[in-house]
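Hi all, posting the design record for the shared folder.

TITLE: backbone redesign
STEP: 1 of 1
STRUCTURE INPUT:
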């Protein structure tokens, strides 16, 4: 009991509230529904054979079948309407491969979902270390999504064949005495296959859940950041803006002087003085012959 309390205290059960853990919990639940509704199925149907001689008739021929639907091994006894004799007949078809494949995928999905939830809750940091855990989880999730697609489609086709093979009207055609016009054969009770229809629906629901979970597991792998970083090297090759001031561009500026730029020497050519006239520098540039003439 103390060990259980310690595990519960150390667990990070908030991950179940996040899409990564919540969808995994749904996968665990719906996997149980899928393989249980198929693997635990048992059905039956009834027929009646009314012979010309009523004492030889059998008005309640009951045929039972169940998972894994090896119908060729299911037999029933029907009257021959000839001296009270019975004839043993078998159903047609073996659909165990698609049914067992579907149940197997459901069981393994249940086990993997339970294991993944345990990892999320108790060793999440170890799971995210070096992104190895998410990458393995992504690959396994993709495999299970594909397996659910294949198994659900195969079982849907197998179920259709099972319905056809267990249709009382079709089974009646297997009874030789029903070919005689003086005998009367009819169905009494049809098999109920609503549970099998539900199993197919749960199979495709699991397919949707596993495909949807791929995105949330993919975000944990770190591959998205790697894909986004493929453009970084090309950006680093471009020079930064400050390199124009510090690099060769500044040295090649023909207008840059010793003081950092072009500075025209207006003081040597004169300028305006405080009285609004030109300075002496301008007067010194006047011709000397003009002053001597004055």
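Okay, here is what came back for every position:
SEQUENCE:
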């Amino acid at each position: 009991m103390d060990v259980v309390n310690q595990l519960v205290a150390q667990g990070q059960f908030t991950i179940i509230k996040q899409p990564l853990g919540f969808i995994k919990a749904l996968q665990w639940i719906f996997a149980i529904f899928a393989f249980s509704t198929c693997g635990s199925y048992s059905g039956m149907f009834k027929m009646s054979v009314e012979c010309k001689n009523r004492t030889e008739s059998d008005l309640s021929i009951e045929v039972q079948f169940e998972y894994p639907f090896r119908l060729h091994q299911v037999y029933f006894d029907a009257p021959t309407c000839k001296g009270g004799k019975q004839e043993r007949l078998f159903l047609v078809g073996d659909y165990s491969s698609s049914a067992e494949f579907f149940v197997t995928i459901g069981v393994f999905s249940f086990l993997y979902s339970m294991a993944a939830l345990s990892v999320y809750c108790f060793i999440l940091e170890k799971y995210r270390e070096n992104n190895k855990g998410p990458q393995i989880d992504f690959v396994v999730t993709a495999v299970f999504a594909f397996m659910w697609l294949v198994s659900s489609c195969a079982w849907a086709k197998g179920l259709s064949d099972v319905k056809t093979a267990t249709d009382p009207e079709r089974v009646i055609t297997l009874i030789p005495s029903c070919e005689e016009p003086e005998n009367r054969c009819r169905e009494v009770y049809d098999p109920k296959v609503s549970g099998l229809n539900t199993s197919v629906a749960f199979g495709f629901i699991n397919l949707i859940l596993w495909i949807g979970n791929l995105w949330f597991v993919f975000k944990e792998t770190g591959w998205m950041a790697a894909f986004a970083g493929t453009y970084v090297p090309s950006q680093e090759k471009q020079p930064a803006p400050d390199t124009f001031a510090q690099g060769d561009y500044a040295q090649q500026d023909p207008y840059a002087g010793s003081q950092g730029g072009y500075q025209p020497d207006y003081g040597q050519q004169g300028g305006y003085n405080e009285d609004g006239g030109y300075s002496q520098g301008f007067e010194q540039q006047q011709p000397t012959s003009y002053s001597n003439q004055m």
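COMMENT: Residues 132-165 form the longest helix (34 residues).
Let me know if anyone wants the other runs.
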